[in-house]
Amino acid sequence: MNRLSLNQKTVNGCSLPEAVVACTRAGITSIGVWREPLHDLGVAAGAALVADAGLHVSSLCRGGFFTAHDRAEVLADNRRAIDETAALDADCLVLVVGGLPLGSCDLPAARARVADVLAELAPYAADHGVRLALEPMHPIYCADRGVLSTLAQALDLADPYDPTVVGVVVDTFHVWWDPDLERQIARAADRIASFQVCDWITPLPADTLLARGMMGDGHIDFRHIASLVAKAGYTGAVEVEIFNADVWRDDPDTVAATVVERFAEHVLRPEPVMGG
Questions:
Q1: Residue in 233, 142, 143, 225 with CA at minimum distance from that of residue 188
Q2: Residues in the chain with pLDDT < 70?
Q3: Is 1 helix (H, G, I), strand (E, B) or coil?
Q4: What's the CATH number where 219 sits?
């Protein structure tokens, strides 16, 4: 259980101090921090708050959106995010790379732009001791959020860089459907910078951004995926990151307690993997 991390988005109505309290009350020892509530408190104050609570920061969410038109601002904001990741001593900076630029249907050009921006940011991240974590997203988000749709695409993009500088996120919500998942997680090995879990629920809500469910409420085989990730050598935090309107309306202490319970029931004990 000491690997469990509560991503702050799971208790979306909470300030950073409130999310820290929810973690400590539930006995959760790691937290995934989001930039907006961090900015509300102040980066230095937020870093001190988390450290004083004895919490480990498993990730900072999020950088990215490389495909936006204003390249100079994209680079400036992501450098700020790298600075914030270093200040928190977080394991990684999660990158949601962005969708198609406004008015564009040129998907190859958008993906090429992601590669170009990453090439500019990777040296800065290396200089600051920060690991960038490319997050492939389910194809339903390709147009507006993430033109990287598979773990294979993310790994291809990361390949030219040192694994300590550019890694990938394995998020069950985004990758569970992939028929090549077993091979790509094995390939990821030293590239896995973050492992995030939540369930795929049906029917999908009208706002598909809020389609993530609590583990056990949907269709994902968490123990199988956790086994693959473990076999690939990942021993870091396992973040529970849930975007769901009903979860967000619930009491944060209740949500955190449910996270602990469902994590133990559905994720904690991976199934045996042949050859593992």
A1: 233
A2: 269-276
A3: coil
A4: 3.20.20.150
